[in-house]
Structure formats: structure tokens, C-alpha cells
Write a structure and sequence with these properties.
By secondary structure, the protein is α/β, with parallel strands linked by helices. The protein has one domain. Helices cover about 45% and strands about 10% of the residues. It is built from 13 helices and seven strands. It has helices spanning about 1-10, 25-35, 45-60, 70-80, 105, 110-115, 125-135, 135-150, 185-195, 225-235, 240-255, 260-275, 285-300, and strands at about 15-20, 40, 65, 85-95, 155-160, 165-170, 175-180. The strands form two sheets. A four-stranded mixed β-sheet has the order 5-4-6-7, with helices on one face. Strands 1-2-3 form a three-stranded parallel β-sheet, sandwiched between helices. Strand 6 (about 165-170) and strand 7 form a beta hairpin. Helix 11 (about 240-255) runs antiparallel to helix 12 and helix 12 crosses helix 13 (about 285-300). The longest helix is centred in the last third of the chain and has 19 residues, at about 285-300. The two termini are about 30 Å apart.
Length: about 300
């Protein structure tokens, strides 16, 4: 942590790429922003956990934080030059993950190896498991709320198997803007680092033929974890932090073979059902609630 904080605040650095997953990314993100750095953000859990501490930096309108998630990069690009008051809806696209065509009975028996076999992306283990539960999209809903200052009622998720349209924004006049590209994270990473400019060609273009694109409503019966993001976001305060912290533990338990895939949602819901959020007044509050979440998960697993 000492090294991460030193890098985050190093004099002479203009842009810091934040790619520390989980709660441990919170303090470096806060100190990056306090030091006046522009942050290219990949560590979404930090923003989800500490969104209420970070929100004042986002309201300045100076694009201090540029997202590296492909979905939020697409929204960021679609909103450039637009009046935020005209935004009617933000649409986050989701591949659906490795289990998108599985029944609940099949999900009850899946192994970590099967869950980690993502049909489109090659990512770290935690985010791949979160993609399979759609909890990753739950985190992205909260992230979009803070990044773009929109209410949860204006955020929607659709399943887009091809992962070509990375997200969309619909405006009051009925127009929809989308950013489309091959499913390759190099593009969003490059844009986040070089913003407001663009680098030389990073990936092959889609033009002139996009192929067939499909969009489906998410199945919230088979993938109920998505709804937890909206619920924790509406609860506010420390609820998103606790939900994210609980998921970190549960994903690790699943990857180690100690719980089943469906147990992830079961325990997440139980933790959130019994939780009363606190006001976020500082990092000490978040740290205390993170520890509380860990104890709650352990209790429900014992």
C-alpha cells in the first residue's frame, strides 16, 4: 500500500492508471484525486465503495476521472459535447458471461473452470466470475451512477452477445449514440490514457460491416445478482461498499471450491437484507463497514 500511495501522488505525473481491484484500491484512488492527478480508472470496486467520497471530484466537470471499462468508456465518449440534462437513458451492454445459456440446475453444478471460460473476453478470474453472475454489471450500474451523475432509474442493462456495441446513451429527442468496436480492451485503455486525444490505430476497424447484432433483456430469475446493484445503490451510504466487499470474499470461496456458484447470490442477498447503511464520512467508516461485511459473510457460510 505504501508503494501504491507513493505512485498515486508522485510529483510530475499527469495521469495515473488505477487498476487495483477490490477494496484495497479505495485509498490510492482517493489520494490520486486529492493530489490533482487525472485518473484512468479500471479498478471499479474503488469507485463503487467510495463513490460518495469521490463524487465531489466528478462534479467539477474537468474530466478528472476517465473510465477504462469498455462500457463506461463508451458512455463517456457518447456524452462528450452533450448537455447532461438531455440524457434520457444510459444503456450498459453485457455479454451475458460464460453461463448465459445455462439453466439454474446446470448452474448449481458448474465448476470454476467452466465459469472462467468466457465466450468473448479474456479477463482476470474475479471479473470473469462476476460476469457469469451478472454481478459485474451490478457494480457497473453503481459506477455509472457516480461517473455520469444519473439516477438509477435512468440506467438500463441489456445482453449483447457480440460485445461490439460497448454501451449506448439515449437523449430526450429520441436519438441514441453508441460506441462500437471489436471486443478488445486495448482501445478503451488507450483512449483513457491519451484523452482528450486519440492514439494511432490500436485495433482493426469494424467498418464497413458490423455483422448481426442482438440485444436481449437480462434474465433476472437466472441472474438475480444484477438487481442487487440497483438495490444497494438506492440504499446509498455504505451499502455499495458492503455489497462489493461481500462479493470479493464469495468469489474467492467459489474459486477455491468451498461454495457453489448459486451460493454467491444467496449470501449476497442475505447480507444486504440484514444491512443498515451508514453515512460515508471518511475512509475509516468504509474500512469498518468492509470488516463488518467480511464478518457477516463468514457467519453465513459457517
Amino acid at each position: 500500500m505504501e508503494g501504491a500511495l507513493r505512485v498515486a501522488t508522485m510529483p510530475g505525473v499527469d495521469v495515473v492508471v488505477h487498476a487495483i481491484p477490490g477494496f484495497r484500491g479505495v485509498r490510492p484512488l482517493v489520494e490520486c484525486l486529492q493530489a490533482g492527478k487525472r485518473v484512468a480508472l479500471a479498478g471499479k470496486e474503488a469507485l463503487v465503495s467510495a463513490g460518495e467520497l469521490i463524487a465531489p471530484y466528478l462534479r467539477r466537470g474537468d474530466h478528472r476521472l476517465v473510465p477504462l471499462d469498455s462500457e463506461h468508456s463508451a458512455i463517456f465518449q457518447s456524452l462528450l459535447g452533450e448537455d447532461p440534462a438531455t440524457v434520457e437513458e444510459i444503456v450498459l451492454t453485457a455479454s451475458g458471461g460464460a453461463l448465459r445459456d445455462c439453466t439454474l440446475d446446470e448452474m448449481a453444478r458448474v465448476t470454476p473452470v467452466e465459469v472462467l471460460d468466457h465466450p468473448t473476453w479474456r479477463m482476470g478470474k474475479k471479473i470473469t466470475v462476476d460476469s457469469a453472475t451478472l454481478f459485474n454489471k451490478a457494480l457497473e450500474v453503481i459506477e455509472a451512477h457516480y461517473l455520469f451523475g444519473v439516477s438509477y432509474s435512468k440506467i438500463k442493462v441489456v445482453i449483447h452477445r457480440e460485445s461490439v456495441v460497448h454501451s449506448m446513451v439515449t437523449f430526450a429527442d429520441g436519438s441514441t449514440k453508441a460506441q462500437a468496436a471489436r471486443p478488445d480492451m486495448r482501445l478503451a485503455i488507450s483512449y483513457g490514457i491519451t484523452y482528450p486525444g486519440r492514439s494511432a490505430r490500436v485495433i482493426p476497424s469494424l467498418a464497413p460491416y458490423l455483422g448481426t447484432l442482438t440485444f436481449e433483456e437480462p434474465d433476472t430469475v437466472r441472474f438475480p445478482s444484477l438487481g442487487l446493484g440497483f438495490r444497494a445503490g438506492e440504499m446509498g451510504g455504505t451499502a455499495p461498499c458492503v455489497l462489493s466487499a461481500a462479493d470479493e470474499i464469495l468469489v474467492e470461496e467459489f474459486l477455491c471450491g468451498r461454495i457453489g456458484f448459486l451460493d454467491i447470490y444467496r449470501v449476497l442477498k442475505t447480507v444486504l437484507d440484514g444491512y443498515e447503511p451508514r453515512e460515508v464520512t471518511g475512509l475509516d467508516v468504509l474500512e469498518a463497514e468492509r470488516r463488518r461485511a467480511e464478518r457477516s459473510v463468514r457467519d453465513h457460510l459457517s
